[in-house]
Design brief:
With 241 residues, the protein is of the alpha/beta class. Helix content is 37%, strand content 8%. A five-stranded mixed β-sheet has the order 1-2-5-3-4, with helices on one face.
Length: 241
């Protein structure tokens, strides 16, 4: 009995594949999806918007002296945001030269900078000027009446919060704060230690002598008639050190 030769299994007809519109190696219609790169580029990208950052930079030699009282060197433009954050009501600047003393101008030899004036106005900060020539050997002495004028502004709580500063925040500011510390009944040693800390590296012997020898009786009227912040601990000069 003879055997019939085995025939191979039927293969898929090319006509059917072409009629289907399918590639031999893919089951997806070629015209449905474009190239991958084109598909990715068509995805919309929404940018992430972030608010601009604000830097709060304190002025040089900045410190809190007491409740609602701060000290520093002369503020720069980059310090305005920080000062605004403090919610200041007043700024007291202690100017330097005799030229400014005679003309009642503040800061450097000329008017207060326009950008600083604009900042004070926008922030609702009142500005006080108090010309105080610095102690310098051998004959330049800080006038007592100028320090009294500065203290009358600082002690009045209606001016608080207040920032007091000179150019460097060292000598004139240091002397005024030193006298204030004595009114707060600080012992002389910590008063002078604080002065040296902020005056370094240019510590002046005349400043320290001025703080020690300042007669607190000179500010009796201020202490008696100005409303002083209770937490400052300022007492009658007769009982202060």
């Amino acid at each position: 009995m003879g055997t019939e030769p085995h025939s191979p299994p039927p293969s898929s007809s090319p006509d059917i594949l072409e009629a289907d519109g399918r590639d031999k190696e893919s089951t997806c219609p070629a015209e449905t999806f474009g190239p991958i790169s084109e598909t990715v580029l068509q995805i919309p990208v929404t940018p992430i918007l972030r608010p601009p950052s604000i830097e709060y930079i304190p002025p040089g030699n900045f410190a809190a002296v007491a409740r609602n009282l701060f000290r520093s060197s002369f503020p720069q433009k980059e310090n305005f945001s920080y000062l605004r954050k403090l919610g200041l009501r007043s700024i007291l600047y202690q100017s330097l030269s005799e030229f400014m003393l005679m003309t009642h101008r503040t800061l450097v030899e000329g008017p207060y900078p326009a950008e600083h004036r604009a900042f004070l106005e926008s922030a609702g900060i009142q500005f006080f000027q108090c010309p105080i020539p610095a102690n310098k050997e051998p004959f330049a002495l800080m006038p007592v009446h100028a320090v009294i004028a500065a203290l009358s502004i600082l002690l009045d709580s209606s001016n608080h919060p207040i920032l007091v500063h000179c150019n460097a925040g060292k000598h004139r500011t240091g002397c005024v704060i030193g006298v204030l510390r004595r009114l707060q009944r600080w012992a002389l040693t910590p008063v002078l230690v604080e002065y040296r800390m902020y005056a370094a590296p240019k510590v002046r012997a005349m400043d320290q002598l001025f703080i020690e020898m300042f007669d607190l009786e000179n500010v009796r009227d201020i202490v008696e008639h100005v409303h002083i912040e209770d937490r400052w601990g300022v007492h009658d000069p007769n009982h202060a050190r």
